[in-house]
Design goal:
The protein has about 150 residues and is α+β, with helices and mostly antiparallel strands. The chain is built from 4 helices and 5 strands, in the order E-H-H-E-E-E-H-E-H. The chain has a 5-stranded mixed β-sheet. The radius of gyration is 16 Å and the shape is globular.
Length: about 150
């Protein structure tokens, strides 16, 4: 498979979407609740987009979850599009699905008057960092977060 298209998530995507989220965030236990909540509380400030093969448009092979956020130090605008999650099934990585999802995200961002998108990944996740860079993102200065139990 080398040709992909994108479309908004549909309720029929729930099983695949939950499975892909579990691969992206394996320690998180509330995928089904979050996905069901997405459909119960649709609003214009967030969207989930699925990547599908043009030969099988009912079978999601990747997703990108986006939201509008405000005031982050690395962005120049008050409101920007934030990538909450971005996943492509391992069997189709490096075939264009990730770029198709980013292109759809950029289109959605422009429709919402955003001139920037922001994202992040864990420092050790070189595959994600490489994918971001390949799609035109630039790395921002890193911060170290601290916490202290009281």
């Amino acid at each position: 498979m080398s040709e992909f298209t994108t479309r908004p998530a549909a309720e029929s995507d729930i099983p695949n979407w939950c499975e892909m989220r579990a691969q992206l965030w394996p320690g998180y236990l509330h995928h089904e609740h979050d996905v069901q909540n997405y459909f119960q509380n649709l609003d214009d400030n967030r969207i989930a987009i699925m990547a599908v093969a043009t030969t099988a448009p009912d079978s999601a092979l990747g997703f990108i979850e986006l939201s509008l956020r405000q005031n982050i130090p690395a962005t120049k605008d008050d409101v920007y599009t934030y990538i909450e999650g971005w996943f492509v099934s391992e069997m189709i990585r490096h075939a264009g699905a990730g770029k198709a999802l980013i292109a759809a995200a950029e289109h959605w961002a422009r429709e919402h008057s955003c001139s920037e998108m922001a994202s992040e990944c864990e420092i050790k996740n070189q595959n994600s960092a490489s994918a971001h860079l390949a799609c035109g993102f630039s790395e921002e200065p890193r911060n170290i977060r601290f916490r202290k139990n009281l």
